[in-house]
Amino acid sequence: MDVRAQIVMVFNLDKCIGCHTCSISCKNIWTDRKGAEYMWWNNVETKPGVGYPRQWEDQERFKGGWVVDGKKLKLKAMGKGPTLANMFFQPNMPKIEDYYEPFDFDYGNLAGAKESKDQPVAEAFSQISGKKIEEIQGGPNWDDDLSGSQVYAAKDLNLKDKKVIESYDSMFMQYLPRICNHCLNPACVASCPSRALYKRGEDGIVLVDQEVCKGWRFCTSACPYKKVYFNWSTGKAEKCIFCYPRVEGGQCNACAHSCVGRIRYVGVLLYDADAVEAAALKGDAELVEAHRDVILDPRDPEVCRQAKENGISDQWLDAAAASPVYALVKEFRVALPLHPEFRTLPMAYYIPSLSPVLSTWGDTHKLLEHGMIPALETLRVPIGYLASLLSGGNHAVIEEALKKLIAIRVRMRAENLGLPADPELLADAGLDEAAAKRLYRLFTIAGYNERNVIPPQQREENDPEKRRQEGGFGILKKTRRGGK
Amino acid sequence: MLNDLIFIALPYAALALVLLVTPYRFLSNRLTWSAYSTQFLERKVLYWGINPWHYGILPILLAHVLGFAFPGFFKGFLGNQQTLFATESVLFGLGAFAFFGVLLLLLRRVNSGMLKRVTFSSDWLVLYLLAFQAGTGIYIGYFMRWGSQWYLHTAVPYLWSIVSFRPQIEYVADLPLVFKLHAACAFLIVAVLPFTKLVHMLYLPVDFLKDPPLLYRWRSK
């Protein structure tokens, strides 16, 4: 057992209202720069939808993530020899059109236009070529709220039965906020020939060393979530840095901090680094359980002893024990990994959404069985859809989580209205009274310090002079290209 | 005069620059050590340009270097008429392939609006030098036959005289002008190498071949 700590985010999809505040705060802090205009380290997608970049989930095209080859894992794209041979032209790399051509508006024209019969307008121009764009072709949330669209939503690879979105009786919509998952088995790190990408041992944050990155571009396609971006100006890869300058000081990430719906939880997980590869080798349907098995119980004295041996401080162990992430992922088993079948062991977890909390039309009497909350079988969102997104196709995993969410809603609704509580309800869902109360608290009224339990790293006490010029983002020095 | 410039002044200036500036750049500004890929912005023409260029020019560059390093071996190896003919044909084909590639890369920079923002004077300089070098190379290959053989008897002893600091330009002084231009351009390319994106060829990623797939960095370990 090799105990390590990882800082992890959980998203409660039931509460996401798709306001993009997270994306904006991230953009303002980290990617408001030349070469990074098109990058959204945090983005919010409408599901069903094609997402950003378009159809990022299509690994037949981008060849991201890992596949099982006999008893070993290998990168889906290519091995090391072909990596050398494809250095000049990387065949799977997404192109700018897969994201969108970044644009701004010529506001100067509003005041500076020549006198004419028509009102001047602020015309769109490309932030790359500087040329006027007659018709904007895409944006970071181009299919926002178009969950019934035949052009976008119907191309969602998770949506097996396209008929669902054709009718008002059965269509559904949810939001999916995404950051870099800071995986336990990151394909981007493995794909880099320069070894510029690395995972930090202390907290598991995955970074790109800008001094080492030579711009070979294999990481951009190896990441199955398309969360490593190519900066067209500096010629280097960049990605979400989990706001490490904030997190190291005990503050939570900008995206989580600014979240209007308070859907995000940040905390520490302890995991067994020796068990990661075996977990990634499991069959698709067993992957969620394998994820949970890799995560260790922070209250187990043996785990704590080995953690201390590995240099994890008491402060971190306390944070791990109080971690809302541990509660949601392992203890109550409601938070699930996004596309575990990519086999990178992503360390961002999602509580599946009941949204819309409606049954399909015509099942109103069933709906009423549970008060206003529909039973699991009548939910609009197809279990298969969520299973394709969050459990490698395993329906039982999704049903278990949704049952708990429904039971808590019904239980708390009854309590608020002074109705008699159904004693069977919680037990059927695998919860007890204390668990229901804890989850209810986390989902609703938990404050900042309950949702985010982030131990500071006290780097100032740990040879700070050795880490000068470390960085995972942007370029602080002048690159001296074109004198700008 | 021209001979002194091309065969004495230029090579020593180029050597001095590449030997002094390259380590300085490596130590002082590794951030710019990149080929500045533009595949993200334009990939269709790039595919037909960059692959022919690299796969054509790398074996040819290697042939030049090996001929310089082991002239004795190659004199014997190319002594046979059939081997010489086959070698010349293969190298000429690769040269034409590379020339085709670099021409496409040049035209691509001219034609793509997206690329204007990432194209600087050093990019033009490098592309023109490389196109000129590949062009004169295949001209020499075609009109001055059996170059792989006479290269070993003229340019190679001359280059050895340069690196041993006893320049003997009589080995190459009477060769045709196109050869002199080819040599001058070669020295220019070496001279601009540390100042341009050409430095990317001095970094070959091989460590990752033996490394485990995942890389961890610890502050404390």
UniProtKB/TrEMBL annotation, chain A:
<keyword id="KW-0003">3Fe-4S</keyword>
<dbReference type="InterPro" id="IPR038262">
    <property type="entry name" value="Nitr_red_bet_C_sf"/>
</dbReference>
<feature type="region of interest" description="Disordered">
    <location>
        <begin position="455"/>
        <end position="484"/>
    </location>
</feature>
<dbReference type="GO" id="GO:0009061">
    <property type="term" value="P:anaerobic respiration"/>
</dbReference>
<dbReference type="GO" id="GO:0042126">
    <property type="term" value="P:nitrate metabolic process"/>
</dbReference>
<dbReference type="GO" id="GO:0009055">
    <property type="term" value="F:electron transfer activity"/>
</dbReference>
<dbReference type="GO" id="GO:0008940">
    <property type="term" value="F:nitrate reductase activity"/>
</dbReference>
<dbReference type="Pfam" id="PF14711">
    <property type="entry name" value="Nitr_red_bet_C"/>
</dbReference>
<dbReference type="InterPro" id="IPR029263">
    <property type="entry name" value="Nitr_red_bet_C"/>
</dbReference>
<feature type="domain" description="4Fe-4S ferredoxin-type">
    <location>
        <begin position="171"/>
        <end position="202"/>
    </location>
</feature>
<keyword id="KW-0004">4Fe-4S</keyword>
<dbReference type="GO" id="GO:0051539">
    <property type="term" value="F:4 iron, 4 sulfur cluster binding"/>
</dbReference>
<dbReference type="InterPro" id="IPR006547">
    <property type="entry name" value="NO3_Rdtase_bsu"/>
</dbReference>
<feature type="compositionally biased region" description="Basic and acidic residues">
    <location>
        <begin position="458"/>
        <end position="470"/>
    </location>
</feature>
<feature type="domain" description="4Fe-4S ferredoxin-type">
    <location>
        <begin position="7"/>
        <end position="36"/>
    </location>
</feature>
<dbReference type="GO" id="GO:0016020">
    <property type="term" value="C:membrane"/>
</dbReference>
<keyword id="KW-0408">Iron</keyword>
<feature type="domain" description="4Fe-4S ferredoxin-type">
    <location>
        <begin position="204"/>
        <end position="233"/>
    </location>
</feature>
<keyword id="KW-0249">Electron transport</keyword>
<keyword id="KW-0677">Repeat</keyword>
<dbReference type="InterPro" id="IPR017896">
    <property type="entry name" value="4Fe4S_Fe-S-bd"/>
</dbReference>
<dbReference type="GO" id="GO:0009325">
    <property type="term" value="C:nitrate reductase complex"/>
</dbReference>
Automatic annotation (TrEMBL), chain B:
<keyword id="KW-0472">Membrane</keyword>
<keyword id="KW-1133">Transmembrane helix</keyword>
<dbReference type="GO" id="GO:0005886">
    <property type="term" value="C:plasma membrane"/>
</dbReference>
<feature type="transmembrane region" description="Helical">
    <location>
        <begin position="181"/>
        <end position="203"/>
    </location>
</feature>
<keyword id="KW-0812">Transmembrane</keyword>
<dbReference type="InterPro" id="IPR051936">
    <property type="entry name" value="Heme-iron_electron_transfer"/>
</dbReference>
<dbReference type="GO" id="GO:0020037">
    <property type="term" value="F:heme binding"/>
</dbReference>
<protein>
    <submittedName>
        <fullName>Respiratory nitrate reductase subunit gamma</fullName>
    </submittedName>
</protein>
<keyword id="KW-0249">Electron transport</keyword>
<dbReference type="GO" id="GO:0009055">
    <property type="term" value="F:electron transfer activity"/>
</dbReference>
<keyword id="KW-0813">Transport</keyword>
<dbReference type="GO" id="GO:0019645">
    <property type="term" value="P:anaerobic electron transport chain"/>
</dbReference>
<feature type="transmembrane region" description="Helical">
    <location>
        <begin position="90"/>
        <end position="107"/>
    </location>
</feature>
<feature type="transmembrane region" description="Helical">
    <location>
        <begin position="127"/>
        <end position="144"/>
    </location>
</feature>
<dbReference type="InterPro" id="IPR036197">
    <property type="entry name" value="NarG-like_sf"/>
</dbReference>
<dbReference type="Pfam" id="PF02665">
    <property type="entry name" value="Nitrate_red_gam"/>
</dbReference>
<keyword id="KW-0560">Oxidoreductase</keyword>
<dbReference type="InterPro" id="IPR023234">
    <property type="entry name" value="NarG-like_domain"/>
</dbReference>
<keyword id="KW-1003">Cell membrane</keyword>
<feature type="transmembrane region" description="Helical">
    <location>
        <begin position="6"/>
        <end position="24"/>
    </location>
</feature>
<feature type="transmembrane region" description="Helical">
    <location>
        <begin position="45"/>
        <end position="70"/>
    </location>
</feature>
<dbReference type="GO" id="GO:0008940">
    <property type="term" value="F:nitrate reductase activity"/>
</dbReference>
